[in-house]
Task: inverse folding
């Protein structure tokens, strides 16, 4: 049920952290995966690591800056050129350049968050939807956050963008479910990634996070990949428009 043999997947922000976990898990199940982030050398190292594990799938590298629509188009076109059709899209890359009260966030930081965390995902969906409609098959996964379900005094704009991602998923699910395109979100809690370092390296925030989590710890990146495999595979064939929260029970 979880077999992805021969499927081709684009995973943005997949050189490390949660994106890397998703790419490795999908490759382990037989998918060919595109490792993509801004820095080519980091992508190359990740692809080499995944390919050296002897998984049935393979990893290729296509660097991309998600803030540039032309670069997104190149990512999609180059994937088709190297692998063929796009079966799975995982929008994981995101930005959060500001930490503090939402009343103090500069316009350029707010715009960057909205552009990279919402518009780029929407653009990528637009680019892959037509071929998925034609085949009547496809899986789109957007990595949101439990921040999209809660307010925050320090990452408010980021949380707004992640709430918008959840609604983006619902709208794509509603419109294109009839073509057997499943669009879902994964909403991680606090994970030990470089992206979230400002949170888990802060002793007070880490203490609060672990205290309010029933499992009394934060997540590790490798605990995300299996959920993405489920949503992309036959096992999740009737899951559409759903936000899968992976947070050790924090939101409860």
Result:
């Amino acid at each position: 049920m979880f077999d992805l043999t021969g499927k081709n997947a684009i995973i943005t922000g997949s050189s490390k952290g949660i994106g890397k976990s998703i790419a490795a898990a999908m490759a382990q199940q037989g998918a060919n995966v595109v490792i993509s982030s801004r820095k080519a050398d980091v992508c190359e190292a990740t692809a080499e690591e995944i390919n050296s594990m002897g998984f049935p799938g393979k990893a290729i590298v296509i660097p991309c800056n998600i803030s540039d629509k032309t670069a997104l188009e190149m990512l999609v076109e180059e994937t088709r050129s190297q692998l063929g059709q796009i079966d799975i899209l995982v929008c994981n890359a995101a930005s959060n350049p500001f930490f503090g009260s939402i009343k103090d966030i500069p316009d350029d930081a707010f715009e960057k968050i909205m552009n990279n965390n919402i518009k780029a995902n929407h653009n990528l969906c637009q680019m892959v939807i037509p071929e998925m409609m034609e085949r009547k098959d496809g899986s789109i996964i957007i990595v949101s956050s439990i921040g999209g379900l809660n307010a925050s005094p320090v990452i408010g704009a980021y949380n707004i963008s992640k709430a918008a991602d959840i609604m983006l998923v619902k709208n794509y699910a509603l419109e294109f479910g009839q073509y057997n395109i499943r669009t879902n979100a994964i909403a991680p809690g606090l994970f030990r990634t470089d992206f979230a370092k400002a949170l888990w390296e802060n002793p007070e925030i880490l203490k609060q996070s672990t205290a309010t989590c029933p499992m009394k710890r934060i997540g590790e990146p490798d605990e995300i990949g299996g959920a993405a495999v489920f949503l992309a595979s036959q096992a999740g064939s009737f899951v559409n428009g759903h936000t899968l929260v992976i947070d050790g029970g924090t939101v409860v």
